Amino acid sequence: NGATLTLSSSQVLEPMGASLPTSVASAPSAPLPGSSAPSSSAGHGLPAGLPPGVKLEDFEVEGVLFVEKAVLACPLPGKAWIELGRWNPISLLFLVPAWSYHVSGPADHWWFVARSANHMYYYASQFCSDNGKNHISGHAFLGMWAAVSTGLQYPEASWWYAREWAPCSEARSKADLDRLIHVNPSLQYPYSWVDNNCQHFAVHLYEGDRSCIS
Question: According to a count of CB atoms within 10 Å of the terminal CB, is the N or C end of the chain lower?
Answer without folding.
Answer: N
